[in-house]
Model the fold of this input.
Amino acid sequence: KQEVTQIPAALSVPEGENLVLNCSFTDSAIYNLQWFRQDPGKGLTSLLLIQSSQREQTSGRLNASLDKSSGRSTLYIAASQPGDSATYLCAVKDGGSQGNLIFGKGTKLSVKP
Amino acid sequence: DAEITQSPRHKITETGRQVTLACHQTWNHNNMFWYRQDLGHGLRLIHYSYGVQDTNKGEVSDGYSVSRSNTEDLPLTLESAASSQTSVYFCASSESRFHEQYFGPGTRLTVT
Done:
């Protein structure tokens, strides 16, 4: 059964720092991996989608990488801002679960001014 | 702009009552999903549909049902609400199994 783990559960950094959020998954047979952002009391906003054949995707200050063979993905945030404070969720589209998303429990990021 | 909406946004109900949560999307997506989000468990899939008249059980489907009579809507019904179903419920849709999923704003349900 696919399991997705995100470490750390919480992270606090000063404004301006570059940071990396980690996501690992146990079964490399995935179709794609998606990173989301969730603000308190809100829904999920899709940030980046990486297909299984891709190594990375970029959007503005965000860069997500995928190493399927080792079961890892990272989300790199450059020059962090207080507005980046949110919970970041990683989810894999699992080949064994009829192609449904399996979520990690998230990393809660706090960027201090 | 295309969007996905959920109603109500907040609901308080009593144990044993039947409750229906609405989900409506205007993207004309074939695929729709219902998740629940609980502290310590993250997001878990309840039911999903890959098209009209198609419904499938997810990881935590007991006590829930869905029906898909058109492309735009996938209502989630709690047959007899239980306190264990107190949660935040999210609806999502995607163009295909392999495209991004887009999420609604969520419904906070409290069962007393």
